[in-house]
Amino acid sequence: MKKFVAAAIVLAVMLSFAACREKGVIPAGKTVTPGTLSQYDPKKCRASYADRLVAQAVYPVSPQYPDGTVTDKEAEEWVKFRKNRMDAASAIDSSALGSFVKKTVREYLTSDDGGNRVYSPVSLEIALSMLAEITDGQTRAQILSLLGADSIENARRQAVSIWDGTYRDDGIGTTVLADSLWLNDGLMYKKPVLDILADSYRASSFSGKPGSTEYDSALRGWLTEQTRGMLDTSGVKLDPRTVIALAQTVYYKVSWENIFRETDTGKRDFEGTKGRVSVDFMNREIENGSVYFGDGWQATRLDTSDGGAMWLILPDKGRSTADVIASDGMFDLISGNKNGIENRRAKVRLSVPKFDVSSQTDLIQGLINLGVTDAFGSSADFSPLTDVPNVFVSEAKQAARVVIDEKGCTGAAYTLIVATYKECPGEKETIDFILDRQFVFIVTSDNGIPLFVGAVNDLTA
């Protein structure tokens, strides 16, 4: 199960690299440069949101891997932490997660424009589970159906198991998840559901005036800190009518189990959807490797320092990444079900391009296609969260980026779901109603029966 979850986090890598012609492009034509991996300032990020913080989530302490420099006690703590992670991963409903991954990957990673796509199923899964917590009725039922959960308790249990089963920062691998709530300081909320989000999802809470420069800056600072500067957050802004914004992030960094030698990297042509281009390819021989053959594709894996892997799936010539996504074989492979998939043990001469791919995805239409409809319209039910009327999801998006080089793989994603109200409470239209001329009145009883009806035509007497 651990390998399946790790694969779900970076699943988009193996699907998008076959279309990788150039470095990934953020919408509006902004190319993300490798320098953003190290140029962010965590202190400035924290300073941007410190005044807006209501409750800070407490994250688990990840003991460092016992590499010979730690004490026996510290080594025991790492073993215990690892066991807890494995126990949590084993509690994941793999069937429900597998179905969710398959449906959403097919929805968000196939397109006609031939561009790169990166998507984190885990980030969306947890964000949708939080959304289910603050909704009810058909709105919640539709979300639960997509998640494959028959109750909000099971959806919560699944999200917690994914969170606890993947979270680590122990020196040999980093998979850090974070959740947060962004509230409107002019509105009232129901405490029980906020407590659930804080306790079960480890969600930090913030409060401020949505749409203000300070609050927008705080949200961008939090997202930037959690994704360690990998993603462009400059376009993140909240509508002044925001009731709540749910933010979920994933940051992932591992080394290859056996790194590539930079001296073996060389130029090679890559044939992408937009033509041929010469790029840097990393090269290595794997003496005892495996290549898997499915219907129209072949695959191998790059083992990582934390015991996980990056699967690399190559469509046969004449086939596309969309063809691979449409088949079940790829999903069976990463879930461990290799029935019908040929495995050849061989010396593998691997040549893989270095890449830096990123994308930003509007999630709304995809969720509607997958059956989550009520959350985006007048039928939305946010009664567990607030009594504010006419609340609906106005924005749902995910940004993600994955970079690989000779040393390893780094990835980050954030999912942002924003609920707003259609009419601004406390800012109603003002109408002067002055009875300074003839008028009619009707007096009714408490059950609507007209007791008196009159016409006031003259007040001179």
From TrEMBL:
Residues 103-459 form the Serpin domain. Keywords: Signal. One of its GO terms (molecular function) is serine-type endopeptidase inhibitor activity. InterPro entries: Serpin_dom (IPR023796), Serpin_fam (IPR000215), Serpin_sf (IPR036186), Serpin_sf_1 (IPR042178), Serpin_sf_2 (IPR042185). It comes from the Bacteria. GO terms for cellular component: extracellular space. It holds the Pfam family Serpin. Coiled coil: none annotated. Residues 1-18 form the signal peptide. PANTHER family: GH10112P-RELATED (PTHR11461:SF211), SERINE PROTEASE INHIBITOR, SERPIN (PTHR11461). Belongs to the serpin family. This is Serpin domain-containing protein. The lineage of its organism: Bacteria, Pseudomonadati, Bacteroidota, Bacteroidia, Bacteroidales.
